[in-house]
Amino acid sequence: GAVVSQHPSRVICKSGTSVKIECRSLDFQATTMFWYRQFPKQSLMLMATSNEGSKATYEQGVEKDKFLINHASLTLSTLTVTSAHPEDSSFYICSARDGRGNDEQYFGPGTRLTVT
Amino acid sequence: QKEVEQNSGPLSVPEGAIASLNCTYSDRVSQSFFWYRQYSGKSPELIMSIYSNGDKEDGRFTAQLNKASQYVSLLIRDSQPSDSATYLCAVNIGAGKSTFGDGTTLTVKP
Questions:
Q1: DSSP string, A57-75
Q2: Distance CA A41, CA A48 (A)
Q3: Are A43 and B44 within 8 A, CB to CB?
Q4: What count of other Cβ atoms lies within 10 Å of the Cβ of residue A59?
């Protein structure tokens, strides 16, 4: 149980284009999903918290107009990196929290984004 | 002061030994604590959660929590080379959010 998928696993795009990353909870309903970014040999950095049916809450310093988050259902959240630049190249990981009241987060496998 | 502090390591132990990973946190009201394992190039995987003071055992893993000292640890018994990874300590900070330590890199040598 508690499986989270993420798609695509790897993407290469040209500077200035947009990339959409999907995060799905496969066997549970996720009341909350989180989006993280991780640069090589660094820790996880929380970008935003996504609740189904409401606007995402962004962490300080994260541009909401650049990183668009949509949480349309209890099993799907998407992150769109708009007008990507090479400095956006990173490992993007989503996690989902189930609705059973504990605070455990289950991570997707991550998406490695390379912007050329 | 960081909210969650971990020894960065690297920590190296021989196969079969006990690996001890430590974590301190600053928010006294935190109630939920987690250990994640992250292999190189992969995403984190939840291995233990602990909510009450004391020990919690799951197979070769034991999590220990001391809220008075704001300290949580993870012991790995009979360490195996496959345990070599970065271990992340996470502390719930409310609204379902957790803050993560920078991780301790463990190497188990055959």
A1: EEPTT--TTTEEEEEEETT
A2: 21
A3: no
A4: 14
CB contact under 8 A, A104 and B103: no
- Which candidate from B36, B43, B92 shows the least CB-CB separation from A103? B92
| Pair of tokens at residue B50 | 């602990």
Q: Which residues, including other chains, have CB under 8 Å from residue A15's CB and lie 6 or more apart?
A: A84, A85, A86, A115, A116
Specify the DSSP class assigned to residue A9. S
Residue B43 has its nearest CB partner, among A43, A46, A108, at: A108
Q: How confident is the model at residue B1 (pLDDT cuts 50, 70, 90)?
A: low
The percentage of residues in chain A with a pLDDT greater than 70, rounded to a whole number, is 97
Residue in the block written with tokens 């690297």: B10
Number of residues written out for chain A: 116
Q: How many residues does chain B have?
A: 110
Q: Average pLDDT of B11-33?
A: 93
Helices (H), chain B: none
CB contact set of A17 (below 8 Å; sequence gap of 6+): A83, A84
